[in-house]
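Before the break, one more example. Copy the sequence into your notebook; we will annotate it together after we see the structure.
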Amino acid sequence: MTWLVTGGAGYIGAHVARAFAAKGIEAVVLDDLSTGRVEFVPTGTPFVQGSILDGSLIENTVERFGVTGVVHLAGFKFAGVSVQEPLRAYHQNVTGTATLLAAMEHTGVERMVFSSSAAVYGTPDVDLVTEGTPKHPESPYGESKLIGEWLLADQGRAQGLRHTSLRYFNVVGSGTPDIYDVSPHNLFPLVFDALLAGRTPRINGDDYPTPDGTCVRDYIHVADLADAHVVAAQRLDAGQVIEPVYNLGSGDGVSVGEIMRAVAEVTGIDFTPEIAPRRQGDPARIVASGELAARDLDWRMRHTLAEMVESAWQARKAAA
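Here is what the structure looks like once it is written out:
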C-alpha cells in the first residue's frame, strides 16, 4: 500500500509523511510549494511538485506510484485572510478537494483521511466541544473545510469512498529539528519571531473569565497529530470500522498566559508580555474532547506544554 500525502511539504504534512516512513508505510508527497518547503520532505519519500487543482497530475501520480489511499492536507489555511479573500479559500479548498476526489474516483482509489479543522464549529457555546457540537463556521476557511467533509460523505454514499475527517485547533511543537512552523499567523511563530528580533510578545486581552484572564485554547503537538493520521490510514487499509469525524482535542486546554510563561522558562528570555486589546470575536475558551479519537486512533497528549515549547523553539532556532 502507498499513501499520497497532499500538502506533504508543509509543517503538518511533512510530519505526517515522516510518521508514515517511521511505520514503514510507503508514501509519496504532492505539494505546490506555495507554503511548503521541499527540504521538509523526508529523505527517501518521492516528491511531486504540483497542485491538487491539477487532476491529470494527480491521476498520473496515483498510477505511477501505485497509490491506494490519500491523506489530504493541502489547502488554504489562513482563516483571517480568507475573510478578505473568500474566493481564494473556496478555490483551493473546495474546488481542489473536488478535483482530488474526482481523480481518485477515476483511478479507483477508495480511501481518504481528510485533515479538517475545528474552525467548522465557529464559537461553540459549550465547555467541551464534541463531534456532535453544532457547526457554525465563522470564516470562509471554516466553511470550506465543512464543505470538504460534505464532499467526502457524498462520495462515500455515491461511490463507496471509505473516509474519515480529523478536526483540530492549534498545532504546535516539532517532531524533528529540521521542520518548524512557518506560518506568519500562528501564536508560536509570532512569539518566537518577536523574541529573536528583540521585541516583546503581546497578548490580546487579559480580562476574560478564565483562571488567568487570557484565552484558553487546545494546543496539540504536531507529532501526536501526525501519528493519528497514520493510525486512521491503517484502519482504512485494514477495513476496520471508523467514524466519519474525530476531534483531536486535549480535553482541558492551555491559556495564552500559560504559554507565555512556558516560553520565558524554556527560552531563558525573561519578558512580560504586552497586553493589547481583545480581538473582536475571540471567545474565552474553546477546548475539544478527544475521547472518540482515543478509543479508535490511539490518540493522546504525549507531550507536555514545556516539551511542545522546547521542540518548537529548538526547530525555530535551527532555522534562524
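The longest strand covers residues 26-31. The mean pLDDT is 96. Try to locate both features in your own notes.
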